[in-house]
Specification:
This protein is an alpha+beta fold. It has helices at residues 8-27, 34-50, 58-75, 87-98, 101-123, 130-208, 213-242, 251-263, 280-300, 339-349, 373-380, 387-409, 420-431, 441-451, 454-460, 469-474, 477-489, 499-516, 528-611, 614-635, 657-666, 684-698, 730-742, and strands at 268-273, 305-313, 316-323, 353-358, 364-371, 671-676, 705-710, 716-721, 745-748, 754-758, 777-779. The strands form 2 sheets. It has a 6-stranded mixed β-sheet with strand order 9-10-8-7-6-11. Strands 1-2-3-5-4 form a 5-stranded mixed β-sheet. Strand 7 and strand 8 (716-721) form a beta hairpin. The chain is elongated and about 125 Å long.
Length: 783
């Protein structure tokens, strides 16, 4: 999202103000006081200049604007500075966006009080319209603050999305390392001690066999038993490594697939499910808990009967995993002690509970209660007044302003004390549904369209004078607002265009009928139906243009909003997918290594022990142990020079760009890096995005490349020459996702080639100082 330049709005206000006053009066040769002109021009320039700092110091700017408007009220003709007087609304909007709610409300109350006093002092009395003016001030300021708070929430949600993306990127970067370390612990627990024991005992039996022949038989028995146990454990581990981590689909189907996978490992698993369709988070939690429970059963009670039950209960969904077997003697412990804790974390993350322990009749039970998403949502959706409610009532007020004001002010003789309440009630019934326009836009449109027929019905019933049809025309903005709401908030955006004829046809016919029921002298002898059609066409053409524009505005606003959210979601999903893929690749590599070497040699241990060949037992056990150590060494590789003392990759920020270039140079690639403004403090999401963008572009090719990064200004400018080829569109997709998360964009550099622009406002609102030669960091081209 590109931000509007901070100078554009003050410049526009100043130009319009000086053109309207004193520009127009001077062109018309009106005599103006030189002091008044000087005062007005000075105040205009002061206010416009102060607005340049409205984002960094809104409270200070508001104080300057208040003083300037107060001086202008007495130093220039009344309403002469009307345009520049809008500055207090602009700054108040900034206060609502940038400052906490309590401070914003206090400042708003102070500004309203100032305006109330200023109106009295400026007019030197309190005329009968004073309460109405104060009410308008309150409504306008409250609405501006509501729009500002809504904008603040939007910014907060974008910042949270950037944090989620940064966390996903961090998981992606660490996924392979994390999986390697976890698998190293599993492999060590499964086999290292057992294979080492076989080697030690077989070696001792060989050395002492002449004096202790009984040791040879014991060593053979131990090798055969331990070899078989190790081989079974490895087979189970390989099978578990090949189980899918996450699969789409309903909970019943995924649990059935999971159970089938464990049946292949010898477990007797039955599944019973009847909870209906679960939300995705509950499905993921249920499948994850079940997988961990089955794994524990496979470890500690292999071959036992296991029952899985997923049932709907009051308040949520209950998952029970029971097994009938006690822990088998001599079964190797494959786990790390985190199984139950991990299952409990999955349940509590959704607001649920989990218990695990021995069953009364023997065996083990895991029971999880996952709350209904609807119940949680109902608590979260408890009604609380917010900025959107103020905006909705403001829209309602705008729609009611013209018809209600016309009825109260107009001196139409047909508007008497008896019919006025009915007319006001009719106008209110036509517009009031707009309060629900966000939640039920189609329903609101239907009610608004239906109530438009109340006018001709009441005229026919002789309850409203036919000459009051003009009041209906003043309230047609309700249809316009309803069409906008359908395009902006309707469930099916592709069908929102139907709201145009849905609003236009009833409105045009109802308006035509209303106007036709008040015939003029020219309508004598013309059929009523013909008059209705003519009036419908006359009123329908301009109204059709209005509702079409409203639909287009709502559709474009929705499209922009959806595009931002989709890009953020896609970026997080892509990083998560890469993290899962990286972990899966590590599991596949480990499984392949186990099958190719360790399993083969471990199987030879058991076979040789059964044949009584102690020499072959020792040889095969040593070969299996060497293969296992090699696999473990590959998993526990030493940290390279680019990692910190804890063995972690450096933080992906612009400060790590030299290390990124060095890493590519270490692979034999020519990389030239030029950084301007190194060391500048940047927002965390922008700092991360700059690194990830360049990392993505460097990974797209293997030839010589020049990287240029200008960190001195706003926006940051990044470029890679040449740009990597992108036949499959992966690079473009990655760039779009990354740029969308922080409001970046693609631009064109001075050489005509593309460059990446990332927003980087300075903390105090001023422009960053251009980097000096000493601050510029440039690495020479590699050989």
């Amino acid at each position: 999202m590109k931000r509007i330049p901070v100078w554009l709005l003050p410049l526009a206000l100043a130009v319009v103000q000086l053109a309207v006053w004193p520009g127009v009066p001077l062109l018309l040769d009106d005599r103006l006081s030189g002091l008044a002109v000087a005062t007005g021009v000075t105040l205009t320039l002061v206010v416009a200049g102060a607005l340049l700092w409205r984002r960094s110091s809104p409270l200070t700017v508001l104080a300057i604007v208040v003083v300037a408007i107060t001086v202008g009220t007495f130093g220039v003709p009344q309403d002469a500075l009307l345009t520049i007087s809008l500055a207090d609304l602009i700054v108040l909007f900034g206060v609502a966006v940038l400052r906490p709610a309590r401070l914003t409300f206090g400042v708003t109350a102070g500004v309203i009080a100032w305006q109330s006093v200023l109106i009295v002092v400026a007019t030197a009395d309190t005329d009968p319209e004073y309460p109405f003016e104060i009410a308008m001030v309150v409504v306008v300021y409250a609405t501006v603050v509501a729009f500002g708070r809504a904008r603040r929430r939007w910014h907060r949600e974008r910042a949270e999305a950037a944090v989620r993306l940064a966390e996903a990127e961090d998981r992606r970067a660490q996924a392979a390392d994390t999986e390697r370390h976890r698998l190293a612990r599993e492999l060590h627990d499964v086999t290292a001690h057992h294979l080492t024991s076989i080697v030690v005992i077989a070696s001792a039996a060989q050395r002492l066999g002449d004096t202790r022949p009984d040791l040879v038989a014991e060593a053979r028995d131990f090798a055969a038993r331990t070899g078989r146990e190790t081989l079974d454990a490895l087979h189970r581990l390989v099978a578990l490594l090949r189980l899918p981590d996450e699969r789409p689909g309903p909970a019943a189907l995924r649990l059935a697939e999971l159970a089938e996978g464990f049946r292949l490992l010898g477990q007797q698993v039955t599944v019973r499910t009847d909870p209906g369709e679960l939300p995705s988070p509950a499905t993921e939690a249920a499948v994850g808990i079940t997988r961990e429970a089955l794994t524990n059963t496979l470890r500690y009670a292999p071959g036992s009967a296991v029952r899985i039950e997923l049932t709907a209960v009051p308040g949520g969904t209950e998952l029970i995993v029971d097994d009938d077997g006690a822990r088998a003697e001599g079964v190797a412990d494959l786990g790390s002690g985190r199984g139950v804790a991990g299952m409990r974390e999955r349940a509590t993350a959704l607001g649920g509970t989990l218990t695990a322990g021995p069953r009364a009749g023997g065996g083990w039970r895991v029971r999880a209660l996952l709350p209904q998403a609807g119940a949680v949502a109902a608590v979260r959706r408890r009604w609380r007044p917010g900025a959107e409610h103020v905006i909705d009532f403001f829209v309602l007020g705008l729609v009611l302003l013209l018809p209600v004001g016309s009825l109260l002010v107009d001196d139409d003789p047909d508007v008497d004390q008896a019919s006025l309440p009915l007319l006001l009630l009719l106008v209110l019934a036509h517009a009031a549904p707009l309060v629900w326009r966000r939640r039920r836009p189609w329903g609101v449109l239907a009610v608004v369209a239906a109530t438009s027929w109340a006018w001709p019905a009441l005229i026919v019933a002789d309850l409203v004078a036919p000459s009051l049809g003009w009041v209906m025309l003043t309230g047609l903005s309700a249809e316009t607002a309803a069409v906008y709401a359908v395009a902006r908030y309707g469930r099916r955006p592709g069908l929102s265009g139907l709201s145009i004829p849905a609003a236009l046809v009833p409105m045009a016919l109802a308006t035509g009928a209303t106007l036709a029921l008040d015939p003029g002298p020219d309508d004598a002898g013309v059929p009523l139906a013909a008059v209705i059609v003519i009036m419908a066409i006359v009123t329908g053409i301009p109204f059709g243009l209005t509702v079409t524009a409203a639909w287009l505005a709502g559709y474009l606003a929705r499209r922009r909003h959806t595009r931002v959210l989709t890009q953020e979601y896609d970026a997080v999903a892509a990083s998560t997918f890469h993290a899962i893929a990286a972990a899966g690749a590590e599991r596949a590599r480990v499984a392949a290594g186990l099958r190719e070497a360790v399993l083969r040699d471990t199987e030879r241990v058991a076979t040789a022990a059964a044949d009584g060949d102690l020499d072959q037992v020792l040889e095969s056990a040593r070969a299996a142990l060497d293969a296992m150590r090699g696999l473990l060494n590959g998993l526990r590789e030493e940290p390279d020079a680019n990692r910190d003392a804890q063995g972690r990759d450096p933080q992906p920020t612009t400060a790590a760009l030299p290390g990124l270039a060095d890493r590519w140079r270490g692979g034999g690639r020519q990389v030239h890096l030029d950084i301007r403004g190194a060391g500048r403090k940047l927002p965390a999401d922008v700092d991360l995005s700059a690194f990830r963008v360049l990392e993505l572009l460097l990974a797209g090719d293997t030839g010589p490349v020049a990287v240029w990064a200008d960190l001195t200004g706003d926006p940051l400018r990044l470029a890679v020459r040449p740009m990597p080829p992108d036949e499959g569109g992966e690079v473009s997709a990655g760039l779009r996702a990354r740029l969308a998360a922080v409001g970046g964009s693609m631009g064109t550099a001075a050489d005509g080639q593309p460059e990446i622009l990332l927003p980087a406002p300075h903390p105090d609102g001023t422009r960053p100082v251009e980097a000096t030669a000493d601050e510029e960091v440039a690495s020479s081209p590699s050989a």
